[in-house]
């Protein structure tokens, strides 16, 4: 009895220390503002708050076990009991509901975790901690379809990119790689400056046996079927891209002079002239050398990718994954800064 009383006192003290309003607020602020990259996919740290909670829980368990010799299975039970009591006093506290759902998940009581997490999600669809617990509990019970239905609804209703990321990951777990790819392409189109989306797209394209080079201009996939299916190619270790397909996606105007074999590109206040088999181009009447000559493939002019970044004010990134997928990302210079602002606003 004395040991049990002392255990309860220590437990209460540690809970107050770990989960006081001030500490919780500081932790949440960090979770909402820090961006991390893990396995090539960018997510907010909030996704990992569940993991962080379990790490805190493990530290709590270790402290109790080392000081009191309490059996491990009793630690989790005591935490669940104390959180239940707190929730009884504050039944509308979604933070306590979420924490108790986390503890139920830790205890493999997935039905109880689902019940509580659903209540939280119904109150706030943007509570990603509860969304994560809810979907992962469904998956632990092999209810992947329920997890997908939930995430599809949340992605449509809240436009929360974190739910969309989790939906893509769930499709991938189910082996539905094309659905996972479709979600990632939607994310890239909505948030073109998030580079890691393209890394994931490259990975999924390779898994889908799509190994041809694909170009995304400000998040939008270039549709080469509208341009005689002439696609990017590599020549003399240089990547060549179709002029009209790429530039028109950049909202540039392209005109072809068949007599002189010259392509004229007008973009904002810039005029570019490219001549077939010529190693130089004219940019606002200034001569610029090309890595390799502009060439014609199936009646479509090709130019070096590097020219776009150096002369049209665009940022180029190349993503090649071991799965075989290859992606080129072309962005307006200001897209990245704008993208960070968009994600900050979503938080």
List the helices and strands and how they pair.
Blueprint: H1 2-19, H2 21-33, E1 35-38, E2 41-44, H3 49-68, H4 72-89, H5 94-106, H6 110-123, H7 128-140, H8 144-158, H9 161-173, H10 177-190, H11 195-207, E3 213-217, E4 220-221, E5 233-235, E6 238-242, H12 243-249, E7 253-257, E8 262-267, E9 270-275, E10 280-283, E11 286-289, E12 295-297, E13 300-304, H13 305-311, E14 314-320, E15 326-332, H14 335-346
Parallel strand pairs: 3-15
Antiparallel strand pairs: 1-2, 3-4, 5-6, 6-13, 7-8, 8-9, 9-10, 10-11, 12-13, 14-15
Helix pairs in contact: 1-3, 4-5, 5-6, 5-7, 6-7, 7-8, 8-9, 9-10, 10-11
Biggest sheet statistics: 5 strands, antiparallel
Biggest β-sheet: strands ordered side by side in the sheet: 7-8-9-10-11
Rounded to the nearest angstrom, the distance between the terminal CA atoms is 47 Å
- What is the chain-wise order of helices and strands? HHEEHHHHHHHHHEEEEHEEEEEEEHEEH
Strand-pairing-aware structural class: alpha+beta
List the uncertain runs: 1-50, 337-347
Number of helical regions: 14
Which percent bin holds the helix content? Answer: 40-55%
Strand fraction band?
Answer: 15-25%
Please compute the radius of gyration using only Cα atoms.
27 Å
Tell the overall outline: elongated
Quantity of strands, as a count: 15
Average predicted confidence as pLDDT: 77
